[in-house]
Amino acid sequence: MQEIKHYCGLFAIAGPEAAAELTYLGLYAQQHRGQEAAGICAADGREIHRRGGMGLVTDAISRHDLESLRHPMAIGHVRYSTTGSCKSDNVQPLVAQTASGPVAICHNGNLVNAGGLRDDYEHRGHIFTATSDTEVILHMLADPKYRDQDDPFAAALRDLRGSYCLLAMWPDRIEAARDPTGNRPLCIGRVGADWIVASETCALDIVQAEYVRDVAPGEIITLTPGKLSSRRFAPPAARCAQCVFELIYFADPASDIFGENVHLVRKALGAALAREAPVDADLVIPVPNCARCAALGYHEVSGVPIGRGFTTNHYVGRSFIQPTQAIRDLTVRLKLNPIRGSVAGKRLVVVEDSVVRGTTTRAKMQSLRDAGAKEIHLRVASPPIRHPCHYGIDFPQREELVAAQHTIEEIGQFLGVDSLAYLSREAMLNCVRESQAYCDACFSGDYPIPINNSFHKAQFERPRAPVAKA
Amino acid sequence: MQEIKHYCGLFAIAGPEAAAELTYLGLYAQQHRGQEAAGICAADGREIHRRGGMGLVTDAISRHDLESLRHPMAIGHVRYSTTGSCKSDNVQPLVAQTASGPVAICHNGNLVNAGGLRDDYEHRGHIFTATSDTEVILHMLADPKYRDQDDPFAAALRDLRGSYCLLAMWPDRIEAARDPTGNRPLCIGRVGADWIVASETCALDIVQAEYVRDVAPGEIITLTPGKLSSRRFAPPAARCAQCVFELIYFADPASDIFGENVHLVRKALGAALAREAPVDADLVIPVPNCARCAALGYHEVSGVPIGRGFTTNHYVGRSFIQPTQAIRDLTVRLKLNPIRGSVAGKRLVVVEDSVVRGTTTRAKMQSLRDAGAKEIHLRVASPPIRHPCHYGIDFPQREELVAAQHTIEEIGQFLGVDSLAYLSREAMLNCVRESQAYCDACFSGDYPIPINNSFHKAQFERPRAPVAKA
Amino acid sequence: MQEIKHYCGLFAIAGPEAAAELTYLGLYAQQHRGQEAAGICAADGREIHRRGGMGLVTDAISRHDLESLRHPMAIGHVRYSTTGSCKSDNVQPLVAQTASGPVAICHNGNLVNAGGLRDDYEHRGHIFTATSDTEVILHMLADPKYRDQDDPFAAALRDLRGSYCLLAMWPDRIEAARDPTGNRPLCIGRVGADWIVASETCALDIVQAEYVRDVAPGEIITLTPGKLSSRRFAPPAARCAQCVFELIYFADPASDIFGENVHLVRKALGAALAREAPVDADLVIPVPNCARCAALGYHEVSGVPIGRGFTTNHYVGRSFIQPTQAIRDLTVRLKLNPIRGSVAGKRLVVVEDSVVRGTTTRAKMQSLRDAGAKEIHLRVASPPIRHPCHYGIDFPQREELVAAQHTIEEIGQFLGVDSLAYLSREAMLNCVRESQAYCDACFSGDYPIPINNSFHKAQFERPRAPVAKA
Amino acid sequence: MQEIKHYCGLFAIAGPEAAAELTYLGLYAQQHRGQEAAGICAADGREIHRRGGMGLVTDAISRHDLESLRHPMAIGHVRYSTTGSCKSDNVQPLVAQTASGPVAICHNGNLVNAGGLRDDYEHRGHIFTATSDTEVILHMLADPKYRDQDDPFAAALRDLRGSYCLLAMWPDRIEAARDPTGNRPLCIGRVGADWIVASETCALDIVQAEYVRDVAPGEIITLTPGKLSSRRFAPPAARCAQCVFELIYFADPASDIFGENVHLVRKALGAALAREAPVDADLVIPVPNCARCAALGYHEVSGVPIGRGFTTNHYVGRSFIQPTQAIRDLTVRLKLNPIRGSVAGKRLVVVEDSVVRGTTTRAKMQSLRDAGAKEIHLRVASPPIRHPCHYGIDFPQREELVAAQHTIEEIGQFLGVDSLAYLSREAMLNCVRESQAYCDACFSGDYPIPINNSFHKAQFERPRAPVAKA
Predict the structure, then answer these.
(1) Known active-site residue D8
(2) Per-residue pLDDT tens for B124-146?
(3) Which CATH number does D261-437 carry?
């Protein structure tokens, strides 16, 4: 049902004996950021131990795994693949043995120059085993070019281009870095004397840690038991590029990221939408679950009563057996079922957070019609998505983005609604404090970080030419 | 987190080749009624085939299972144990070989005379393998006392006391019955020429069937491919006893049961609560997810703005690794995390559907305080629960029901709220059309079906006295 | 590869806290008697706890299972289905709740009057859940007809016909019984103050227990911690009927059963075969593994040098992936591979223990030819199998027994050997001390226990006629 | 029970669509060479696909895996770790992406200069993910130093030191190489137009392929569908070093390796032993299963009757539950149980293939005593093992080799036997045709390939010094 899968969540903690267990909880709280794989590394001062696998945190990490990771520093990762397909080789953290010892790394974002760096290393004779863009960072950390500098990690980061929050682990410390544009969120927390780094503050809540501050763009944080230190590897970018889509869709409403409370921003988006696109109606309903905050905003400004249009089946899992063709159509309602008693005979304002391909939204609108809705006015709490993301969101190709191919009117017809309105870009940016510090390239096509246009996700999986033999 | 687990859901269909697959979907849509075990039987005219196991439908039934069940009649069951512990021997449908062939049965409800019937059969030399009260029905169906009558199933049902919706399968037909008091819901649906029986209408929706009517109290429905017939085994009880708690808590808001739309009843409960227990406040928030409908009703009548107080982690599963004692307290927030941006500094009206032990509610209230709530006024959209249920709801012992032991004021202090109010019994009953047709014994202590006071859930598991040998 | 699967092994011990663990070992040592399912029950004085499942002991019972069975009395069972198909419902011990408490039972043998007893119970209204003949014994133990007698177990046993060694467990004791003909082996052992009953003495060896004596035909042994007592439920049959095929094929060569050492009997069979069917040859080789003892006997008497003709792949498991049709033929050599260096150019005497269908033997002979054998003289250390077994051996139908359908000469041609000889019945019986105490019906057709001719294994699985409804 | 685990088996085939399935069979036939992990790679001309995991072939590779490998070239590996611990990262074949495309490799043997090569690569900035010595070969193949040469594989091989048979796979071909000393066996087979390379000829038998010849020391074989070609990368070593222990213990008796039939060599070893160390006795028995061939040889020369002393439990698996301490001693007889009827009262000659630590042999001798053996004369069909192996056999440290620490007399006392004799080195070498072409360093200490004395198996797992940071 989900048109955009989330991508990655990070968690690191130094200090407590139960570091891996707390990391497990921290990943669990960020499970919405990635459901395809999960992994944890723990360091004991001499070695790095890794456990992980495919699936949800609770599938990928066993109690036995946690027991074998009882060391005072841990980092963890939940993943939806951005670069790299869904293979176990790509479970992060990735670990390597290097001349200066073992190192582990995990990554949220997308490197736009990974292909070039990898080609260069392969040309020099390096071998690659995973298909993700993250592996190239391990090669850089092992490379004497960086290794022999005073601050190898900082030197390597300076040669990365793109979007990244990184956790790196050595046997004696954890380092966390955020790219100079600040594209992805990364925050610092503290519980007692123990320091934490996480993608979202909801991960701090679950371990009852207090939020301290965000990792700054261009900053490296070093965690050791009881101690946190900071240094810069680069100045903040002239143009910061925080992902506005994190606020619109990805992050948990209970989190604070980029200095904003996610719930309040979403409510403000809905309120702005009510001002820009009012409609005479009986009931405002959100499409669960992301649009609930925006629907509240729309309701408050418009005065249209708010209601509940769907029930959600919380037991949907990856293991649902694909039904045979004959009854496949029935599965549309597996996750969302309209509440007939709520919507029948009503003129509805349906609030969505965003529309990507439009096919799922269309099915939802149809199910509301079937349940007796009299009118459907779809209001989208963000602008039309017309451009792909190169910094970590797995939007489909431009050809599949409905708003890249069609006018608003055509989209409304396709979705089968009585009226359709999107929020304007200006109104969207007015909902955040520092609108100039955001990337909204998926809406505007204005890419703040230069990209290689030929990039696409599966690039590292393309078969290479076989070795030509004389 | 859940104080009351749901109990059982039923689904039967006769006609299509994919009967078992549709049953899988129908159980899936009713997964909220039981998460401990699931099973499906299919009949081919000569034999009954069974598959099932512990856990969610998607865990208990594999694709391979469904393939081995491709026969045109199927019945299925999801279970939370009411009588009988969580053991695989109790996965329903139960199947037995009898002198008149194989028979399968599944049950939603609780038989108050099962103990006596079982004692009698054991005394006569019968053996029992499961610990549920349902097994005794198999013995009755095999018993010549009933078997030799014109309508064995009806004859057996007439000797059952208590609450039951039953599905029984013979190789050539399915029969569905509802007890004379109508305690549990059971409805009839139709898709094309195929007939369906299900606990809730949300199971009809998922297979795009239309609702026809409810099975009447005291009625037996017979399903064969393309054909439905009806007969009575008993007149409706003088006093019907539909479970009001189904409307308050168990059923899916998208379902219609007992002739009511669940969502609308819950909204009416919230509205009545606003009239009975108004309070000067800034924000109404529901405790997810059941109280969302009631909170809407409270908001509409009171005029207090409605908001969202918590985010829900949808990835909570049974397999979560129990953390070590040291960090166990942290898990309070695994499922619900308060949205600080929403509740901080606010005077809150928190709407709950019901309060059982009170311990979970207390933790939720504390987390709202921690997130900065200024005042907390808890409003419960049902009366205080003071009496155990003998008809299938797994309430704890009377000693653990907070309202059975304490005054409202004491409960408010225990929960740590600024004010507390429950809905009155009268107001509750005003929210349904035929209030005299309901059982509200958990609130009133007025049990419509006579019970054996010594009954408790694990009675069939108590060790018997060892055989005395001379 | 195996033409006859073994059937069942029993083990019981009373006394030590680790009773279930010792039972696990005892079953493990008897794994050759049944590889399809395994189960263990332990009693704590008040209740009976059961664990088990399909497959080998090591698959069916987990460490966690053993931990949950730490009680001072345990019984266990390994099974190859004789009556009843390969379904988990048939895992033994079977357990039931009865009016006089719980009881568990396991069985080695085959009841020839189980069908009639079951029909009678079903007629009286009893239900059956398993398809094995063992379940009817549970019904008898619960039946007031037996239950009200002074010695219910003895009374029930007196009404059983057929072959049985039984272990029965009540919460406070274990009872072991052997049928009056002594058809299957059952011995008593002792380790310290703890008493053991097992099918074969090799199970005593593994727990370092000493052999005390066999359970006598018609005897019941009662085990409680530290105590063993005995009583008779019937006099020994006028005609004892110990299974000679246990000595020829089933039992472990290290075991003593029926007062004989299995290895020595097999060696004697081979020696007799050399006397009856000498041949001028270069090398005697056994077909692994059962015929190794007989081959030694043949070698010693004949003076023909003994060698090794095949290597055995010990890693053959149930999980071997069935290859696609194209390469299926290759799997003939999965388990046995001829040693070319040993057999090439040689005139071979190949010693087999028995020939059932002949198809597997034929493939083995062909592989010896392919490896360069010059002549193959097959010598079978038992008579031709011409009759089915009704007492627990899963021989195929008469139509599939090669010796029931063909002359010795035809069989030799079918097998592709240069000469073929079987041991005579007289010579076979001369190899045991009390030849009149044996059943050799599979060779002679002389059935010592009257049988119902229509019996066949799957009788309890045949679909019954559906209930006729007016 | 096994004192020496085997190490590795290789199989490769080019041509048939079912290449992976045939590889599965070929590995299965060589399961005795490694039970810890198994893997298969298949090539489709453009890409290399890998499947595998821990455990036996049947555990590590599923039917689904084989279906996803239906390509006309496949290589496979079974492993007992020589270098590298038992971790899934070390499942072979190892696969890497390089500048010239993907490459896969698997290895039987041990590289004595792997440590130095790896240090060098790490120093240059390469990263390592596995802990086996095999990974360094992937780095060499990707290294421009070799990659840019006319024959990169040959060039890389020339810089390897130690023992190796290798299979390398590129998307369009398979290459197989054997080190210039010929330390490990590797043979070429053919079935129809399809070419095979395998460690042992028993793997050819299972796929009904004919043996063509051995891969020569210093030779590279290239396999493509329907085509085999050969080239040399090095001349055969001045001193060949075929592992004599392969003949004594590792290889399957049905195999031909190094131009010898394994069974016949073992029989000759036993015969020589009878000549060197005769004894007046009643019975010769082998310790199962390896010594069965040698025992035949001893018997034939000595004239002492041969018998069977033990039965073997074929169901021993890796999953056997470790019993609690109290009953641990009982498990000595899990695998071998003495046949009392065979050995009681006898003067035994017990033939063993080799003695490593001596602890297991001691337990076996004790169990024979317990079964009533009158005298035990242990005869070992190889010389005393006094030196570790550096070429792939996982002998324990010198301190644990009983013959490195004790005189023959002391060993005899330790083992509790009445007399003990080993075969002399001279007699052993007389049993093979080209005795000068063998390595017997484990007996003689005469290492044909220079070694780095500090080498030990876990060297790549030692924690490195953490990075020192200023």
Answers:
(1) yes
(2) 999 998 777 899 999 999 999 99
(3) 3.40.50.2020
Q: Is B126 on the interface with C (CB under 8 A)?
A: yes
Q: For B282-329, what is each residue's pLDDT tens digit?
A: 999 999 878 999 999 999 999 999 999 998 876 654 444 555 554 555
* Cα gap D120→D114, rounded to integer Å: 10
How many residues comprise chain B? 470
Q: Shortest Cα distance from D461 to chain A (angstroms)?
A: 10
ipTM, two decimals: 0.87
Task: Let me know if chains A and B touch, i.e. at least 3 Cβ pairs under 8 angstroms.
Answer: yes
Helix (H) or strand (E) holding A429: helix A425-430
Is C467 in contact with B102 (Cβ distance < 8 A)? no
Every domain of chain D and the residues it spans: 8-241, 261-437
Backbone angles phi, psi at C92, to 5 degrees: -105, 160
The answer to whether C308 contacts D334, with C-beta atoms less than 8 Å apart, is no
**Residues D306 and C305 sit within 8 Å (Cβ to Cβ):** no
Check A337 against B206: CB less than 8 A apart: yes
Q: Which of residues 3-22 of D touch C (CB under 8 A)?
A: 18, 21-22
Cis peptide before B152 (omega within 30 of 0): no
CA distance D311 to chain C (A): 6
To the nearest whole angstrom, how far is the Cα of D315 from the nearest Cα of chain A?
27
Chain C contacts in chain B segment 19-58 (CB below 8 A): 45-47
Residue position matching structure tokens 């071909």: D173
Give the pLDDT mean for C436-443.
96
Question: Hey, how many other C-beta atoms are within 10 angstroms of the C-beta on A135?
Answer: 28
Instruction: Return d(Cα A73, Cα C64) in angstroms, integer.
Output: 31
Assess contact for B278 and B272: CB atoms under 8 A: no
**CB atoms near residue A25 (< 10 Å):** 26
**What CA–CA distance (Å, rounded) separates B426 from B35?**
33
Query: Could you give the CA distance from residue C181 to residue C111 in angstroms, rounded to a whole number?
Result: 13
Q: Please tell me which chains touch A, using 3 or more CB pairs under 8 Å as the contact test.
A: B, D
The token duo for D258 is 């190094």
Q: Between residues 345 and 404 of chain C, which touch chain D (CB distance below 8 Å)? A: none
Question: Cβ B319–A59 below 8 Å, yes or no?
Answer: yes
End-to-end CA distance of chain A: 52
pLDDT per position as a tens digit, A382-427: 999 999 998 888 777 788 899 999 999 999 999 999 999 999 999 9
Nearest residue of chain A to residue B340 (CA atoms): A254
Q: 3-class SS at D466?
A: coil
pLDDT at position B129: 87
The residue from D8, D41, D202, D431 that is catalytic is D8
CB of C232 within 8 A of CB of C226? no
**How far apart (Å, rounded) are the C-alpha atoms in residues A453 and A441?**
14
Pick from D134, D234, D239, D243: which is nearest to D181 by CA?
A: D239
Please tell me if residue B470 touches chain C, with a CB cutoff of 8 Å: yes
Search chain C and give the residue with CA nearest B460. C97
CB contact under 8 A, D315 and C254: no
Cβ separation A122–D142 shorter than 8 A: yes
State which fold the C8-241 domain adopts: Glutamine Phosphoribosylpyrophosphate, subunit 1, domain 1 (3.60.20)
Amino acid found at B237: A
**DSSP 8-state secondary structure symbol assigned to residue C434:** -
Give the pLDDT confidence score for residue A315 in this predicted structure.
63
Q: What tens digit of pLDDT does each residue of C143-192 get?
A: 999 999 999 999 999 999 999 999 999 999 999 999 999 999 999 999 99
pTM: 0.87
- Which residues of B belong to the active site? 8
Distance CA A30, CA A25 (A): 9
Asked if the Cβ–Cβ distance from B323 to A25 is below 8 Å, we say yes
> Is residue C451 very low, low, confident or very high in pLDDT (cuts 50, 70, 90)?
confident
Query: A47: which DSSP letter?
Result: -
